[in-house]
From TrEMBL:
Residues 27-262 form the Radical SAM core domain. InterPro entries: Aldolase_TIM (IPR013785), DNA_rSAM_put (IPR023874), Elp3/MiaA/NifB-like_rSAM (IPR006638), Endo/Exo/Phosphatase_dom_1 (IPR051675), HhH_motif (IPR000445), rSAM (IPR007197), rSAM_sf (IPR058240), RuvA_2-like (IPR010994). GO terms for biological process: DNA repair. PANTHER family: ENDONUCLEASE/EXONUCLEASE/PHOSPHATASE FAMILY DOMAIN-CONTAINING PROTEIN 1, TYPE II SECRETION SYSTEM PROTEIN K. Keywords: DNA damage, DNA repair, Iron, Iron-sulfur, Metal-binding, S-adenosyl-L-methionine. SUPFAM superfamilies: Radical SAM enzymes, RuvA domain 2-like. It holds the Pfam family Radical_SAM. GO terms for molecular function: catalytic activity, acting on DNA; DNA binding; hydrolase activity; iron-sulfur cluster binding; metal ion binding. This is Radical SAM core domain-containing protein.
Length: 363
């Protein structure tokens, strides 16, 4: 198979730009074209949800490092991509798969590539290779896939989560901390949501650990989709709304310092996020907290308000150091009218614009 046909087979989630598979990632409000590909889809492992599990009949291909580096460099030189994401199935020993991936990354840098490089590590790879990856990638990560040990043993029978994943993620953190300035875009991981009976509660608890203990920059959630000729081919797909709510909750943890326990009121009795913006769910279950007074609310209380993010909360505190809010209309003048969307949840000296109940349960 020719190199471009192989790229079509091994590229991940891409759209096509004149027959070249390009993945469009969104970063800081901007679309960034990436070459996002597997180095190989030969796999020795047998994860139950995966199209490339070793027991499944499928077309298998691999790149050798020089040809993959060459393809990526040419696409970057031509301005078709701004970044490269490399991952791989685990062909043989995890270190062999890592060496092929890092070999391509090293050659790419040697060609003079200065674009964004995102490397997905193999579970169980050696410390030496984790160290090499931190010297090459702007972002590195390793997929955790599931928060629950028993479920992981079922869906990823070849992998020990404690040793092959958590220990390696810790190594990533330690290596990145040892050499400040490297891995500038941080560490990441991914859950596959709905491949087992894990709850959102379990996913959020693990996400909180990953964000606070290992300071992961980003946690991705990929909704499970059944694949024919796998043990999970008859399992229902994960609803998109579930993935969306998990992202909303994880951004509240990462950007707003919400803690895992803060989400408890937003979960239903089975431990799943209700299909509602988690902040609005918190309003519904804690109406007694609102409205919060703009002149006395703490930073954390302000962050609970739908429509107020960390930037606005900090501005409110800065304004309060110099003066106070005299009324809600004075607040809109000082903070800008965009904050008016938060009006139902705010008060100034007892003054409220609208009855909160009308917003929680609109007629
Ligand atoms: S190790 Fe990766 S590629 Fe291999 S079966 Fe598991 S998920 Fe699929």
């Amino acid at each position: 198979m020719g190199r471009w046909s192989r790229l079509n087979l091994l590229s991940l989630g891409a759209n096509y730009d004149r027959c070249v598979p390009i993945y469009h990632s969104v970063a800081q409000g901007r679309t960034v074209p990436l070459l996002k590909t597997l180095v190989s889809n030969y796999c020795t492992n047998n994860c139950t949800y995966c199209a490339f599990r070793c027991e499944r009949q499928t077309h298998r291909e691999r790149f050798n490092p020089p040809e993959l580096a060459d393809i990526a460099f040419k696409l970057w030189e031509q301005g078709k991509i701004e970044g490269v994401f490399l991952s791989s199935s685990v062909e043989g020993d995890p270190d062999d798969a890592m060496r092929r991936e890092l070999g391509a990354a090293e050659l790419l840098r040697e060609h003079g590539y200065t674009g964004y490089l995102h490397l997905r590590l193999m579970p169980g790879s050696s410390r030496d290779l984790v160290r090499r990856a931190t010297g090459l990638g702007d972002r590195i990560g390793l997929n955790i896939e599931n928060p629950e040990k028993t479920a992981l043993a079922e869906i990823r029978p070849d992998i020990d989560p404690k040793i092959d994943i958590w220990r390696r993620l810790r190594w990533c953190r330690e290596e990145a901390d040892r050499r400040p300035g490297l891995v500038s875009a941080g560490l990441d991981t991914q859950f596959i949501v709905g491949a087992s009976d894990e709850t959102d509660n379990q996913i959020l608890e693990t996400t909180h650990r990953l964000v606070t203990e290992l300071r992961l920059q980003r946690v991705y959630y990929s909704g499970f989709r059944p694949i024919k000729q796998t043990p999970l081919e008859n399992r229902a797909p994960c609803p998109e709304s579930r993935v969306y709510r998990l992202y909303q909750a994880s951004f509240l943890m990462r950007d707003y310092n919400f803690e895992f326990k803060d989400f408890q009121p937003a979960l239903d009795e089975k431990g799943f996020l209700r299909d509602l913006d988690p902040k609005l769910a918190l309003v519904q279950t804690n109406p007694e907290i609102f409205p919060v007074d703009l002149n006395s609310a703490t930073f954390k209380e302000l962050l609970l308000v739908p429509g107020i993010g960390p930037k606005t909360a900090r501005r409110i505190l800065t304004i309060r150091h110099q003066t106070s809010f005299e009324s809600l209309s004075d607040a809109w003048k000082k903070l800008g009218t965009r904050v008016k969307s938060a009006a139902p949840y705010l008060s100034v000296g007892g003054e409220r614009q609208t009855r909160l109940n009308d917003f929680i349960h609109p007629k």
